Amino acid sequence: MPIYEYQCTKCGEEFSVRQSMGEDGSKLNCPKCEAGNPQRLVSAFFSGGPGRSEISGSSCVGST
To answer: Where in the numbering of this chain does the Putative regulatory protein FmdB zinc ribbon domain appear (predicted)?
Structure first.
Protein backbone atom coordinates (compact mmCIF):
# COMPACT_ATOMS: atom_id res chain seq x y z
CA MET A 1 0.00 0.00 0.00
CA PRO A 2 1.29 3.48 -0.82
CA ILE A 3 1.88 6.19 1.77
CA TYR A 4 0.08 9.49 1.16
CA GLU A 5 0.82 12.82 2.80
CA TYR A 6 -1.97 15.11 3.93
CA GLN A 7 -2.25 18.58 5.42
CA CYS A 8 -5.03 19.65 7.76
CA THR A 9 -7.02 22.57 6.33
CA LYS A 10 -7.75 23.85 9.84
CA CYS A 11 -4.45 23.73 11.79
CA GLY A 12 -1.91 23.05 9.01
CA GLU A 13 -0.59 19.81 10.55
CA GLU A 14 1.08 17.51 7.99
CA PHE A 15 0.74 13.75 8.42
CA SER A 16 1.25 10.53 6.46
CA VAL A 17 -1.23 7.70 6.01
CA ARG A 18 -0.83 4.27 4.46
CA GLN A 19 -3.92 3.60 2.36
CA SER A 20 -5.02 1.94 -0.85
CA MET A 21 -4.89 3.87 -4.11
CA GLY A 22 -8.70 3.90 -4.33
CA GLU A 23 -9.16 5.85 -1.09
CA ASP A 24 -9.37 9.64 -1.30
CA GLY A 25 -8.79 10.62 2.33
CA SER A 26 -12.27 12.05 2.84
CA LYS A 27 -12.77 9.86 5.93
CA LEU A 28 -9.52 10.95 7.60
CA ASN A 29 -9.22 13.23 10.61
CA CYS A 30 -6.24 15.34 11.62
CA PRO A 31 -4.25 13.61 14.40
CA LYS A 32 -3.64 17.00 16.08
CA CYS A 33 -7.00 18.83 16.02
CA GLU A 34 -9.39 16.06 14.81
CA ALA A 35 -10.69 18.20 11.90
CA GLY A 36 -11.92 16.24 8.89
CA ASN A 37 -11.32 16.40 5.15
CA PRO A 38 -7.54 17.06 4.96
CA GLN A 39 -5.88 18.08 1.70
CA ARG A 40 -3.69 15.52 -0.05
CA LEU A 41 -0.19 16.83 -0.76
CA VAL A 42 1.89 16.08 -3.83
CA SER A 43 4.79 13.84 -2.80
CA ALA A 44 8.03 12.90 -4.47
CA PHE A 45 8.32 9.31 -5.65
CA PHE A 46 11.51 7.29 -5.78
CA SER A 47 11.89 3.84 -7.23
CA GLY A 48 15.23 2.16 -6.84
CA GLY A 49 16.62 -1.25 -6.44
CA PRO A 50 19.81 -3.20 -6.06
CA GLY A 51 22.61 -1.77 -8.18
CA ARG A 52 20.78 1.46 -8.93
CA SER A 53 22.69 3.72 -6.58
CA GLU A 54 24.57 5.48 -9.38
CA ILE A 55 23.18 8.44 -11.26
CA SER A 56 23.77 8.30 -14.98
CA GLY A 57 23.99 11.20 -17.36
CA SER A 58 26.44 13.62 -18.86
CA SER A 59 27.96 16.63 -17.22
CA CYS A 60 30.30 19.42 -18.21
CA VAL A 61 31.82 19.56 -14.73
CA GLY A 62 35.59 19.23 -14.95
CA SER A 63 35.77 19.64 -18.72
CA THR A 64 37.79 22.41 -20.32
So the answer is: 1-43
